[in-house]
């Protein structure tokens, strides 16, 4: 059976959902289909590692995007796309059915990186609602949970599970938690909050492999230690899902390569979200895994699919986290030369200016709120001398 749509969106994640809503704003009639592997309709992911654990009364149903009831958008859930035939402008799903498109959005996100070990329900990565549900089933007050990876999601979850009375161990490769992103002094302060609430920290080592027997996971660390737990959560990064694009002959690298209009090397196919590699107007060609990037790039790709020729100019997308009583926001490149970063104490919090070749490359706020659009302006038009950098951003 062959179907035909004006617009097809591959992936019902945050980028795909935003693109679909935007297409509908600009083209009320063009037929539109979202194809997604998940059994859930598109939803907003960040609460899965935050409010879902920290706010018992959080209205979980509010995470769904308001497109599910819109009958002018068809959504195929629980459906894996197998192949794109770019010459024929078709996609094939796992059942063998073929769908024709005029414009296609490639927004397949990424797949969690893994370590050696056989598949088990006790070992998961928190990427989607299904993972959340599985984790909830397994991790109860008193459960022993190991989280590998000290990135934002791993740290958020470690705090969330601890607040749910679990015995939590966080394994990470650095000396101090999150020192890859935070200057050492702030990383130490950040880490101390986890110590204070009783999360066990194992630093300076990688996780090598795991095995599962008798409802127990054994995790082998590079330093030779073996840890045991009821559940293992891997938060060790994401690989962009480029395989279908590559097989279809699109240019890929670290992500699917697109131009400033978010058009891939095939003029009928656009890319957005975590999988997108594009020329950022502030920090140059890059790929990001942030909410803001998924939303903005999804919207611009959606508009361009309807015929707009809009340059994607939302440079240096925001990344953020809220963990315990700490809130962090950042734009730009936040790891280069971090030890030379300029740290400004403001209103009980900190603003960090990361430097690269003597210029600010990224700006991060720690427990202080500033206008991040102004922070972006500083990255674009930095002051002539670094001593003028501080006091440019005012707390709001
Ligand atoms: C738990 C969690 C917390 C987060 N918190 C924050 C935060 O606080 N701040 C922040 O900036 N960012 C956060 N993020 C990151 C943010 O959610 C992502 O950047 C965003 O979801 C990316 O959107 P996307 O549409 O590109 O990819 P995704 O939202 O991952 O969507 C991709 C979709 O494609 C589907 N798919 C993949 N392959 C196929 C296939 N072959 N066929 C059909 N469908 C397929 C997937 O199932 C998925 O539904 C968080 C992410 C997670 C998981």
TrEMBL record:
Its EC number is 1.-.-.-. GO terms for molecular function: oxidoreductase activity. InterPro entries: FAD-oxidoreductase/Apoptosis (IPR050446), FAD/NAD-bd_sf (IPR036188), FAD/NAD-binding_dom (IPR023753), FAD/NAD-linked_Rdtase_dimer_sf (IPR016156). Keywords: FAD, Flavoprotein, Oxidoreductase. Residues 5-285 form the FAD/NAD(P)-binding domain. It comes from the Bacteria. The keyword Transmembrane does not apply. It is an enzyme of class 1 (oxidoreductase). PANTHER family: APOPTOSIS-INDUCING FACTOR 1, APOPTOSIS-INDUCING FACTOR 1, MITOCHONDRIAL. This is Pyridine nucleotide-disulfide oxidoreductase. The lineage of its organism: Bacteria, Bacillati, Bacillota, Bacilli, Lactobacillales.
């Amino acid at each position: 059976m062959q179907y035909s749509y004006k617009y097809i969106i591959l992936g019902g994640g945050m980028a795909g959902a935003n693109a679909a809503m935007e297409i509908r704003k600009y083209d009320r009639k063009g037929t539109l289909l979202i194809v997604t592997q998940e059994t859930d309709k598109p939803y907003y992911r960040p609460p899965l590692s935050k409010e879902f654990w920290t706010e018992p009364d959080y209205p979980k149903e509010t995470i769904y995007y308001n497109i599910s009831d819109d009958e002018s958008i068809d959504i195929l859930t629980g459906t894996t796309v197998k192949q794109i035939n770019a010459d024929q402008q078709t996609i094939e799903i796992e059942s063998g059915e073929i769908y024709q498109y005029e414009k296609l959005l490639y927004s397949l996100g990424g797949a969690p990186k893994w370590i050696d070990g056989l598949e088990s329900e006790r070992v998961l990565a928190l990427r989607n609602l299904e993972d959340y549900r599985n984790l909830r089933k397994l991790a109860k007050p008193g459960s022993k949970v190991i989280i590998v990876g000290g990135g934002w999601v791993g740290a958020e979850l470690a705090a969330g599970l601890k607040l749910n009375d679990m015995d939590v161990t966080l394994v990470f490769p650095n000396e101090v938690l999150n020192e890859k992103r935070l200057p050492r002094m702030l990383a130490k302060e950040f880490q101390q909050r986890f110590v204070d609430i009783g999360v066990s920290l194992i630093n300076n080592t990688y996780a090598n492999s795991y095995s599962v027997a008798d409802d127990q996971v054994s995790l082998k660390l590079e330093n030779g230690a073996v840890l045991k737990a009821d559940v293992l959560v891997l938060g060790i990064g994401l690989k962009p899902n480029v395989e279908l694009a590559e097989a279809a002959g699109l240019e890929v690298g670290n992500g699917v390569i697109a131009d400033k209009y978010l058009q891939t090397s095939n003029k009928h196919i656009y890319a957005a979200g975590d999988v997108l590699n594009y020329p950022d107007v502030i920090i140059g060609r890059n790929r990001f895994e942030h909410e803001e990037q998924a939303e903005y790039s999804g919207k611009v790709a959606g508009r361009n699919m309807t015929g707009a020729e809009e340059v994607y100019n939302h440079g240096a997308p925001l990344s953020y986290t809220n963990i315990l009583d700490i809130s962090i926001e950042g734009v730009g490149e936040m790891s280069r030369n971090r030890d030379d970063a300029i740290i400004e104490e403001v209103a009980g919090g900190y603003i960090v200016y990361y430097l690269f070749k003597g210029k600010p490359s990224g700006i991060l706020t720690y427990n202080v709120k500033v206008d991040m659009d102004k922070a972006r302006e500083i990255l674009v038009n930095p002051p002539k001398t670094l001593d003028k950098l501080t006091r440019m951003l005012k707390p709001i």
